[in-house]
Structures are given as C-alpha cells and as structure tokens.
Design goal:
- With about 400 residues, this protein is an alpha/beta fold.
- The protein has two domains: about 200 residues, Rossmann fold, CATH 3.40.50.2000; about 180 residues, Glycogen Phosphorylase B (Rossmann fold, 3-Layer(aba) Sandwich), CATH 3.40.50.2000.
- It is about 45% helix and about 15% strand.
- The chain has 16 helices and 13 strands.
- The strands form two sheets. It has a seven-stranded parallel β-sheet with strand order 3-2-1-4-5-6-7, with helices on both faces. A six-stranded parallel β-sheet has the order 10-9-8-11-12-13, with helices on both faces.
- Helix 4 links the parallel strand 4 and strand 5.
- The longest helix is centred in the C-terminal third of the chain and has 21 residues.
- The radius of gyration is 22 Å and the shape is globular.
C-alpha cells in the first residue's frame, strides 16, 4: 500500500459470477487485497440459470458483492438501467481505481466512468482485464467489427489493459484494440493447495469413481467446461468416440449449459452409451481431477484455461486444442499434448498414448504440477495487482489532471 492511513477505494466490476476463472479471480482479489490497504466494492450482474454461479466462493471468502440484476450476459434494454446504477455507485463511492473484468463488465464499467467523470482530472485510474476475448469465433464478421470498434474506443480511456496470457495480448494487438504500450500480461493465480493433497488422493479418487459407477482401474478422460458453443464439447465427444474404438475408457463431462440437450442427443453421445457420464456442475474439482487419468480441453478459443491449470496441479496430464493461452499453461510434450482444433485424430492419438503408458502419465503429471504451482500462485497474483495499483495511483497523484494515458512506466 502507498504511504497513508486511509485505504484506497476500488470498484471491481464483472457482468456475472458464473462458474470459471474470472469469477474466482474477482472474488479472491476483493478479499486478499484488503491486507495491502485496498477496500473493494465488487459489483456483479446476474447469471443465466444454466450458467451456474460462484456465490458459494464469495460466501466462503466473506465477500458480499453488490448485485445489479439488470446487468446480464446478453445485450438488452436492461443495460441502460445497469449503466445508471453503476454511475450512481461511482458518484457515491468516488473510487480511486475502477477495475473491470471481461467484455460486458468492461464496456458498462468504462462507459460509466466516462459519464460519471466527464473531465479527465476527475477520473479514477481505469484498468480492464481481458480474461480472453470474444472478438473472434463468437459473432458474425459485422458484429465482431462493431465490438472491436467499441473496444478500441474504450481502450483509449483506460490506463492499463491486462491480458491473462501473452497469446491473448498478442491477439488483441493484432486486432487493433490498442498498442502494446497499453498492455500488461498478468497471469492468473489460484489457491491450488486442494489439488496437491496427495495423502488423501486415493480415497477421494475412489469416492468420486463410486459415484460415477467407474471401476478403480478403468481409464477416465474428463472434460471440465460449460456446455456452450465456444467450448466445442461436440469435439470432445468426437475424440471420445475415436478413443473408445481402441481403448475401453470412460468419458466424463463436468459442467452444464445451453447445449446440454443437443449434445446428449448427438450421434457421438449415443454411440458412447454408458461409457459417457454427464456429471453436471461440481464444486469438488480437485476430486474430479484425482478421479481422472487425462483431462481434456477442446475449445475454439480460450484466455487462460483454468481447468488445465487445476488438472496439472493435481498431477494429471492434459490434452488440448492449440488455442488462446493454452501454450502458456501446458508444457507441450512434457505435461501435456496439444493439436490444432480441427485435428480430432491427433487429439485422440495423444489421449490414447497417455492411457496406454502409465509411466508417461506419471512423468507428465509431475512436470505439470511443477509448472503450474510455480507460475499460477495466488500470492503472486495478489502482490502483482497490489504493485500495479500502487504504481498507477502514484502516477495519478503526480499528474492530477489525469491527462496522461498511454504508456505506463515499466
């Protein structure tokens, strides 16, 4: 914390606390930064019924978010009411820092800052975190172009743009969102202690497998993902079907979402029959990893895939599509294997190679744990944010007109 006795006020804004890395990070930072002298109001919107939420984590951490029910995932008339609510909160709190997360929260939060504080010298420090991006692979070219333009405009009014991986940063620069001088790379960080509790591993593995009706020695390949288009669960089913032709494995899908009924009715799901287990949302992801022999990711786009970090922390090898920030997370050829998204056969071959070689799985698990537990720590995430906040608040104090936005001292 900077010198002084009063805490620095932060408004942290995210559109929804649906299950995933962004929600974990916003909740965790809200609590952990208190020790550094930062007092945070976490503003969140409402999730759709099939997204799940992480209210339980907020309760465990003693975080009470400010809910704006009209702030939802999809654009709509409720956005205007949500924008007004955020503006009113900004006027009331007068935060020194506004930190927004993900696309919808980033748009509403940063527009609200411009409305609430029209003169630059009045504005707080503005930071936005890209946990990934939806500028490719989600929308039609015309719609994606509109969103790129919005991001470019909002980037000009931001002091710093944070990307969770070098790959995400480079993609955003290539898309023309902002120059490299506006970006910092801030890898995710988690409390991974529950994934490294090997003394309880065998018992916890057995309990989950009993719930799933899976034998102790049966190979298990798991996907942990929301059942939404970008996660390409259909690709996982295609890989599973190929693997099942050569190996008597079981396949588990942990998650839920809008495509559940469609996926369950697919030809690949039908062909897999009782080899395929739909586990739904679960909170005990460490136990899910312990019960798995390989964890997969089959997405078309990712920021930093949390499921691969958690799997490797549990010493489970991974196989994934080569997208987004996957290469930052996986030590390719050591802790896991990757392939371009269309290459289902290569993904299936990597899974089969791991299932057939117990020594290879053990070595990959060891390498993966060493990698993620040294890089993606909660302590590093919190201290990096505290240092960045200190730096930006000090710079703003030295330039109270707030006119200097762009390159940040490094």
């Amino acid at each position: 914390m900077l010198n002084g006795t009063r805490p620095i006020r932060i408004m942290r804004l995210i559109a929804r606390l649906n299950i995933g890395g962004p929600a974990i990070q916003t909740i965790t930072l809200t609590r952990e930064l208190e020790a550094f002298g930062y007092r945070t109001r976490l503003v969140r919107g409402a999730e759709d019924p099939d997204e799940g939420n992480m209210d339980y984590l907020a309760a465990e951490r003693g975080v009470v978010p400010t809910l704006i029910p009209s702030m939802r995932r999809d654009p709509g008339a409720g956005d205007l009411l949500a924008l007004l609510r955020v503006v009113l909160l900004l006027w009331r709190d007068r935060p020194q820092i506004v930190h927004t997360h993900a696309a919808k929260g980033g748009t509403l939060g940063r527009v609200a800052v411009l409305i609430a504080f029209p003169l630059p010298r009045w504005r707080p420090v503005v930071i936005h975190t890209y946990h990934g991006h939806s500028l490719t692979g989600y929308f039609s070219p015309r719609t994606a172009g509109v969103y790129r333009l919005i991001e470019k405009i909002l980037a000009r009014g931001s002091d710093v743009l944070l990307a969770v991986s070098p790959e995400v940063r480079d993609e955003l620069i290539a898309l023309g969102v902002a120059p490299s001088s506006k970006f910092r790379v801030m890898p995710l960080g988690f409390d991974l202690s529950s994934f490294t509790m090997d003394a309880e591993r065998r018992e916890r593995r057995r309990e989950i497998r009993d719930q799933w009706g899976v034998g102790e020695e049966e190979p298990v390949v798991t996907l942990i993902a929301r059942l939404v288009p970008i996660k390409r669960v259909d690709r996982f089913l295609a890989v599973a079907r190929r693997v099942s032709e050569s190996c008597d494995a079981r396949f588990v899908i942990v998650g839920d979402g809008e495509l559940r009924a469609q996926l369950m009715a697919s030809a690949d799901a039908f062909a897999l029959g009782d080899r395929l287990i739909w586990a739904g949302f679960r909170r005990d992801i460490a136990d899910v990893c312990f019960a798995s022999d390989v964890v997969m990711l089959t997405s078309d786009n990712e920021g930093t895939p949390v499921s691969l970090i958690e799997a490797q922390a549990a010493a489970v090898p991974v196989v994934a599509t080569d997208v987004g920030g996957v290469r930052s997370v996986v030590r390719v050829g050591e802790s896991g294997w990757i392939a371009p998204p269309p290459q289902v056969e290569r993904l299936a071959d990597a899974v089969l190679r791991l299932l057939r070689d117990q020594n290879l799985r053990a070595a990959a698990g060891t390498a993966g744990r060493a990698h993620v537990t040294s890089r993606y720590t909660l302590e590093r995430l919190v201290s990096d944010h505290a240092a960045l906040y200190d730096e930006l608040v000090a710079m703003r104090a030295a330039s109270p007109d707030g006119a200097s936005r762009g390159e940040v001292a490094r």
